[in-house]
Design brief:
alpha/beta; about 30% helix; four-stranded antiparallel beta sheet
Length: about 425
């Protein structure tokens, strides 16, 4: 059996699946239920400095649904915990004492003054929690008050606050990064420079998910008005994967532990984050959609996959995909693949033809031997993969790599055009007009 035990930034847990700081981790009752279901750790919902926090008493969530009503993305306008600080601290202490083998990290957000951070981390330290997570990502409500993303968008502030926290606590310090920034590497570098033990990402993305056309206001709508919120769920996973990979392969942050967050719903999602450098993962939307017991499928699925691949521990595959993430100009432009349609699986819906004919390279016919049918014209196919993605039958259309020498650029129009462009492309070190060294 694969060993799923995890040590992340010095924090031990029986598996790498943590609940992210969010409504599911707002109180003792929820956290205990999560532990009972099998979660390896939780990040307690963000605590403030004790000043009253008032949340809206109307709709807090907006959603994007798939055609089958599946939840693709969730937008929230909820603030940090509105429960008393001392009550949260008492519950954290009780929970940690009762569940010593589970990770318990506390998310924090206070005004940007050293004494505020020194005070709150001392209080959390007394609970014997395993670590703290600095919430530099909240994009709404708190950011207008100079906290959350307002700090996370300024690398100098990130480094400064991280240094304060490392100065005033023995606990591991995890810095939660905002995706609402141009280049995620800069805040990650700042956290690293400030002494962070790890970073976690991504926090939610600034968004308005829909507009109520009757009220003419964004959804969710509070008494006729709406606001931007934080977007999460399966739809943000590609953005999160890219940002995790950028930090994992950056020379200045290489080796910095990463907790992956963003749309993780299955064991496969978790494995993908880990392959790109995440040491563990945090989950929120999936738990809010399916309940805490979804972690059991994640645990069994990851364990079975690791057994199948011969991985004894997660360290066997964490970061394995990072060396294969590169910049566009380093891709092999001599590699050629063509689409192939399996006629036995084809249901003759015509979606591949329409997509290719109208928006791509006119490389799929709609007739075979005078009858309705769909076939790839090899010499026109550029291997763009669009037909594979629009086909409703999994495995019906595949991309097949061509053997070297099997495609003649003089007769294949797509290859000829690509070759002509590449010979003068500025990224080609052997382009026409460049003298040989």
């Amino acid at each position: 059996m694969a060993d799923l035990t995890s040590t992340f930034a010095g924090i031990k847990s029986p598996n790498p699946f943590w609940l992210a700081s969010a409504p599911p981790t707002d109180k003792e009752y929820n956290v205990v239920r999560a532990y009972e279901a099998g979660w390896g750790g939780v990040v307690w919902k963000t605590l403030g400095d004790g000043d009253p926090v008032v949340n809206v008493n109307g709709p807090r969530y907006g959603a994007i649904h798939g055609k089958d009503r599946s939840l693709t993305g969730l937008n929230n306008i909820e603030l940090i915990t509105d429960r008393p600080l001392q009550l949260n601290l008492q519950e954290i202490k009780r929970v940690k004492k009762a569940w010593p083998d589970r990770a318990l990290v506390v998310s924090l957000m206070v005004p940007c003054e050293e004494e505020n951070w020194a005070s709150i981390v001392k209080l959390v330290e007394e609970t014997e929690a395993d670590g703290i997570e600095l919430n530099f990502g909240c994009p709404h409500g708190m950011s207008e008050r100079g906290m959350g993303a307002a700090v996370g968008q300024v690398p100098e502030y990130i480094e400064m606050v991280t240094r304060w926290c490392k100065k005033h606590t023995r606990m591991p310090v995890i810095v939660k990064l905002t995706p609402n920034i141009t280049d995620i590497r800069y805040p990650a570098r700042a956290a690293h420079a400030g002494g962070a033990d790890a970073v976690s990402l991504i926090n939610t993305i600034n968004s308005i998910v829909s507009v109520d056309l009757d009220q003419m206001a964004p959804s969710p709508t509070i008494d006729g008005k709406g606001t931007h919120g934080g977007f999460c769920g399966p739809a943000v996973k590609p953005i999160a994967l890219n940002m995790v990979a950028e930090i994992a392969r950056d020379a200045e942050t290489r080796g910095l532990p990463i907790s992956g967050i963003g749309g993780i719903t299955t064991w496969r999602d978790a494995a993908e984050f880990m392959a790109l450098g995440a040491g563990n993962v945090q989950v929120c939307t999936a738990a809010m959609t399916y309940g805490f017991k979804i972690v059991q499928e994640m645990i069994s699925g990851l364990s079975d996959w690791m057994d199948e691949k011969g991985h004894n521990a997660m360290s066997d595959f964490v970061g394995q995909a990072v060396p294969n993430v590169t910049d566009w100009q380093f891709l092999n432009l001599n590699y050629i693949a063509k689409a192939k349609i399996n006629q036995d699986l084809c249901i003759k819906c015509g979606r591949c033809h329409i997509a290719c004919e109208d928006t791509s390279h006119q490389a799929i016919t709609n007739m075979i031997d005078g009858a309705r049918g769909f076939e790839v014209i090899d010499e026109e196919c550029v291997g763009c993969n669009l037909c594979v993605n629009v086909c409703p039958v999994e495995g019906c259309i595949t991309m097949e790599a061509m053997e070297p020498g099997s495609v003649d650029p003089r007769t294949d129009k797509a290859v000829e055009a690509a070759y002509a462009n590449w010979t003068t492309h500025p990224n080609n070190p052997n382009r026409v007009g460049v003298p040989a060294e």
